[in-house]
Design a protein that fits this description.
The protein starts with 14 loop residues before the first strand and ends with a strand. 0% of the residues lie in helices and 53% in strands. It folds into two domains: 8-98; 108-301, YVTN repeat-like/Quinoprotein amine dehydrogenase (Methylamine Dehydrogenase, Chain H, 7 Propeller), CATH 2.130.10. The chain is mainly beta. The strands form six sheets. The chain has a four-stranded antiparallel beta sheet with strand order 1-2-3-4, with no helix packed on it. Strands 5-6-7-8 form a four-stranded antiparallel beta sheet, with no helix packed on it. It has no helices and 24 strands. One of its GO terms (biological process) is mRNA transport.
């Protein structure tokens, strides 16, 4: 794409993820070389700051916490573990939490920090077919974890949080209700599932079958308090779907595009939730936007 910048990461094997922090000033990358690297981003320059070593297998994803919690970075790996790193001094990082070896029994494929309004909470998706939620309690200064009650057969590939504000809160005359804790997960069972936490207890809400193969990624759109909940999913079957929650309950599905024979690896939303980026097996990234009549069209670049 025009304006893109390439740089030498210094990793000795395939890079699996690269994420900018909240301000766009730090970049974290992770690789099959078992390391996480942190860079300072100044214009088009990337200055290497740190190598974070601790994983014993390929590192699949990295995720920055909101800056209100300090400089925190989470990473997940084939080694069944999540490591949470904290920058203690400029360029100096230490491990502040590692998930116990008994929490997950297979590769951890995806991690996602909850909206900062909910606190310091991390959702974790694993090939062992389960998801867990890690939460930091400031009063006790410790991390706790909770397993979701059953998830996806064969394995969980991705996890994403819903916006914390109830849908419609900004266009309703009523006082906004409490923040909501909801998740969507994707799995090797060709399904996506939504989950809700009420009074500290997680339960499955909906199971949606639309894909004919593994669902590789799922992303809940920011709604900014508008009266809708929207989820995007992309799969090994080359399909990208938009799922819209109906006011009477349940979800309706709409095809964005058929990328076959290429699989779809990642889907992600713009911060306003109106543009969807899709990364496919042809190494292409395309942008999509919904028209007034509800049709999704590619944005030409």
């Amino acid at each position: 794409m025009a304006g893109s910048v390439t740089f030498e990461s210094g990793h000795s094997d395939m890079v699996h993820d690269a994420q900018l922090d909240y301000y766009g000033r730090r970049l974290a990358t992770c690789s099959s070389d078992k390391t996480v690297k942190v860079f300072d981003v100044v214009g088009e320059q990337h200055v290497h700051l740190a190598d974070l070593r601790g994983h014993e297998g390929p590192v699949w994803q990295v995720a920055w916490a909101h800056p209100r919690f300090g400089s925190l970075l989470a990473s997940c790996s084939f080694d069944h573990r999540v490591i949470i790193w904290k920058e203690t001094h400029e360029g100096q990082w230490q491990q502040v939490y590692i998930t116990p070896s008994t929490l997950h029994t297979a590769s951890i494929n995806s991690i996602a920090w909850a909206p900062q309004e909910l606190g310091l909470i991390l959702a974790v998706a694993s090939s062992d077919g389960t998801c867990s939620v890690l939460e930091y309690t400031p009063a006790q200064a410790n991390w706790s974890f909770e397993k979701l009650p059953g998830s996806h057969a064969i394995g969980v590939t991705a996890v994403s949080w819903s916006p914390p504000v109830p849908s419609g809160a900004l266009v309703s005359s009523k006082t906004p209700g409490p923040f909501v804790k909801r998740l969507v997960t994707a799995g090797c069972d060709n399904m996506i599932k939504t989950w809700r936490c009420v009074d500290g207890v997680w339960s499955e809400q909906e199971s949606m079958l639309g894909h004919s193969d593994w669902v590789r990624d799922v992303a809940w759109a920011p709604n900014l308090g508008l009266p809708k909940n929207t989820i995007a999913s992309g799969g090994q079957d080359g399909q990208v779907y938009i799922w819209s929650e109906k006011s009477a309950g349940g979800w309706e599905r709409r095809l964005v595009h058929d990328f076959r024979p290429a699989p779809v690896w990642r889907v992600s939303w713009s911060t306003t939730g109106n543009i969807l980026a899709v990364s496919d097996g042809n190494n292409a990234v395309t942008l999509w936007k919904e028209t007034i009549d509800g049709v999704w069209q590619q944005i030409t670049q």
